Amino acid sequence: MKLAVVILNWNGQSLLEQFLPTIIQYSPEATIYVADNASTDNSVAYVKANFPSVKIIINKANYGFAGGYNKALQNVDADLYALVNSDIEVTANWLQPIIETFKNEPKTAIIQPKILDFKNKEYFEYAGAAGGFIDKYGFPFCRGRIFDTLEKDNGQYDNSIEIFWASGACFFIRSEIYHELNGFDSDFFAHQEEIDLCWRAINLGHIIKYVPNSVVYHIGGATLQQGNPKKTELNFRNSLYMLTKNLPKASLYPTLFLRMVLDGIAGLQFLAKGKPKHFLAILKAHFAFYQYFSKHFKKRGAYQKKSYYKVNSIVYTYFIKNGTVFEMLV
In terms of C-beta density within 10 A (0-12 exposed, 13-18 middle, 19 or more buried), how is residue 290 classed? Predict the structure, then answer.
């Protein structure tokens, strides 16, 4: 199986200097690409000068995560795509368990490895951890991470299981499935586009797996910090887009209404904590949702799977029942 490791880059020369050598060292099975999203630093020149074996794809503008990969992957010939953030450190033999799973499980379309925290390597990392799930209202969480509570990796999630979504930080997908789904939704720009793509894949009957024998370390927030109001806006907006596109028809409007009530409560909490910019970010997210509702409604597929969520409300479970560990949810 031809495997392409594709690293999306935007002004990330320092990250490429730090992490690209290890990816090259530990990926002899793969062709490695750097897909540049119109960087204004010396990223491209640096890669050309120091890593002649790495193929470079130049996007004409910064299309974000979603559009950037959609543009770049038009130029990549492979059976499997490994979409890898520029702030990921890989480990020896990280690719073999993934490739073997794809070979042995033809119905598996998407795979995520174990993602640990680069800054604190005994703990899971926020963006993906040991595989992702959502609640009834579209709030994402992971085995090993619920909201801001990160678990220590004690081997408790060393079993390979089906998951609902795989993290875009290190995301493996069969190329034919990627193109069958028309890739990421470029309207998302960044954040939660991988959850939307996974949900669409599940609605079509595909399987998503977590494979713990493959381990990577992620810095997280290297492009947009966790406390940035723009990140808040994109997460809230894209979550509403995703629900509009993928919720079962019978529960679409009641679920959206309750989700917006929960968003309102979150906005008031931001105000109470003295974070008015995050309150305004939620308002912007909702205005965008109202403005483009019909556009995203028209993207709904012919079938939406009814059993899509792990728990009714992760907000209630976490904040009211103190359910801070994944094993407490099931």
Answer: exposed
